[in-house]
Amino acid sequence: MTRLARFAPGLRAYAVIYLLFLYLPVLLIPLFSFSEGTVVAFPISGFTFKWYGQLATQDTLLQSLVNSAIVGAGTAVLSTSLGLFAARAYIRHDFPGRRASEGLVMLPLVTPVIIVASAMLALFLLIGLRPSLLTVILGHTFLTVPFAVSILKSAFEEFDPSLEEAAYDLGESVWGTFRRVTLPIVAPGIVSSLLVTFTVSFDEFVLAFFLSGDQPTLPVYIWSQIRFPAKLPNTLALGSLLLGFSVLLLIAAEFFRRKSRNAIAKVKG
Amino acid sequence: MTGNTIIELIDVEKHFRSFVALSNFSLDLKEGEFFSLVGPSGCGKTTALRIIAGFQEPTSGVIRIGGQDMRAIPANRRPTNMVFQSYAIFPHLNVADNVGFGLAKSGLSRAERKQRIGEALEMVALDGLQRRNAHELSGGQRQRVALARALVMRPKVLLLDEPLSALDKNMRESMQFELRRLQQSIGITFVMVTHDQYEAMTMSDRIGVMFDGRLEQVDAPSALYAFPANPKVASFIGGMNFLPATLLNERNATLSIEIAGLGSLDIGMNPGVTRHERDLLVGLRPEQLYIGRDAPTDYDVTAQGTVTDIAFYGESVRYHVQINGVPEPVSVSVPNYFHTVDFKRGDAVWIAAQGASVIDLGTRSDNEPTKQERKV
Lengths: 269, 376
Ligand SMILES: Nc1ncnc2c1ncn2[C@@H]1O[C@H](COP(=O)(O)OP(=O)(O)O)[C@@H](O)[C@H]1O
Ligand SMILES: [Mg+2]
Known about the structure:
- The structure holds 2 protein chains of 2 kinds.
- By secondary structure, chain A is mainly alpha-helical.
- Helix content of chain A is 78%, strand content 0%.
- Chain A has helices at 2-7, 9-33, 50-55, 59-92, 98-106, 113-126, 133-157, 161-169, 174-203, 206-211, 218-225, 232-268.
- Chain A has a single domain, classed as Orthogonal Bundle (MetI-like fold).
- By secondary structure, chain B is of the alpha+beta class.
- Chain B folds into 2 domains: 5-226, P-loop containing nucleotide triphosphate hydrolases (Rossmann fold, 3-Layer(aba) Sandwich); 231-374, CATH 2.40.50.100.
- Helices cover 22% and strands 36% of the residues of chain B.
- Chain B is built from 9 helices and 20 strands.
- Chain B has helices at residues 45-53, 95-99, 110-123, 139-151, 169-186, 197-203, 221-226, 231-236, 371-374, and strands at residues 5-16, 19-30, 34-38, 60-65, 68-69, 80-83, 157-161, 189-194, 206-211, 214-219, 241-251, 254-259, 263-268, 279-284, 290-292, 301-312, 316-323, 330-335, 348-353, 358-363.
- Chains A and B meet through α8, α9 and α12 of A and β6 of B.
- Bound molecules: adenosine-5'-diphosphate and magnesium ion (MG).
- Residues 16, 19, 21, 39, 41-47 of chain B line the site of adenosine-5'-diphosphate (ADP).
């Protein structure tokens, strides 16, 4: 990267402009959330926290926040558990169809969510599962398993398989080995996966819109408010909080991911 | 020192899909012996060890430990413990918890466990480091923790996979002595895998030499050195000159032969090889050859040659000497003490050998050594 930058200084400018283009619109949201006016326009008129203050009094909003937290937590636990076993199998074992299965697990990252959402809604109705937080959790689990699998795969890649063999050799059972050696060593990876899958679920709109029925999650609630111009400042304030919260979670996730890598690297080196 | 059989491997085969990692592998290990499996990288040593430990199932064949069939017994219930090549120290536990890991299910009280951990650490000279974290240990200390962690289980057999290969040279040499001493003081069977033939020679009661998934020869180090079963073993254990020879006469345990370029002499018959033609292959260790400016009188064969190459090893010097009628230069090793004769490239020298130091390797066409094996 540094060498590339030295030979082509234009690339650095390009990178800066690209990042600005990507993030500037996002930064406008918190900016306008402090504006006293109700229209999004420059110049900004006055500075206020009142839109934030009002949030705390809106019951439907608070209910949707609780819904999102439930869905996020359920999704995180479910997809991280599934991801844990899948990732270990992919890294430790070679079995027929391993590559195909690895590809299949990653598929939700590239399938059009709206197709998946309508198909899932049809499926759930077919088997008699009414739209609810449970169906959202199932949908989000499908969507977030690829994140869990790829985070945990990298945790297992760093992990010397003879550690598990050593535990088994010392008389531990298969389950005891998993509990006393595997889990503690991949724990930072698990935390990282929980945080990332929670965040993805917390911010997800399309699946939640299709599958939540009369229990809206936060993004679904925001969408329902955006149609009312008077509510816009509130929505901006809410959006800013959400943004800040997601960034914090992802930073924490990255911290744990690096911690897991360093802890293992230290003992190896 | 060695007694009853503790481990029996009978006709063990191990295939990975179509790849044959172990073939026709039979081995008896004795109680209380230090046994080494030695062979080039990829020859199946680790696979053999892992089959004994129970991490891998043989494709066919029988394994018994202490007379009991092990095929239905998983690794966590076998009376063996392993020191892994990577040491596999648990990174999230301190030294005491690493060493005490296997005692959790022993039913021992806390105090008893603590006592056992202390004893094990004392054995490997690490007592007092109980509270250290895994990442605060040096390579040598990690290895000792791995040893203590296995020995605390009081296994019947300790399995060691290249235990010294990750250490630097000085540490490796002192650990060779220490491991040997440890094995003798606790008296259990050690099975060590190594690719280093000198390590195997210095530490072991017996050595099994492996090539390509086959056990070529099992013997004491001195017997392997004196009577290698074939040129492969001969060149893997120590240096060796391979020379073509003709069988003149064979009676009792003595062969009369003529070595091309050197002359005729009587040598001992190697019971491990076959002779069904007159064209033989013989071996001569570099340190068993005489080299000097004058022709010696008390040797069986003598010849004149020219020094073509010199390699200085510190404790010894190795000369390559071209002799008329000998296909390739002969390698001669001389200990490097004070007034050693110092030859230069191109010097004319005399080479001589005794029949007693010539090794019979059997019919030449049976075991033409490859180019690489000729190297000494
Ligand atoms: N699990 C496995 N799957 C496929 N091939 C293997 C496996 N384990 C070992 N091998 C192959 O078997 C051969 C012997 O391996 P190994 O026993 O580790 O050799 P060594 O310890 O002597 O270096 C190697 O060629 C290796 O590639
Ligand atoms: Mg090996």
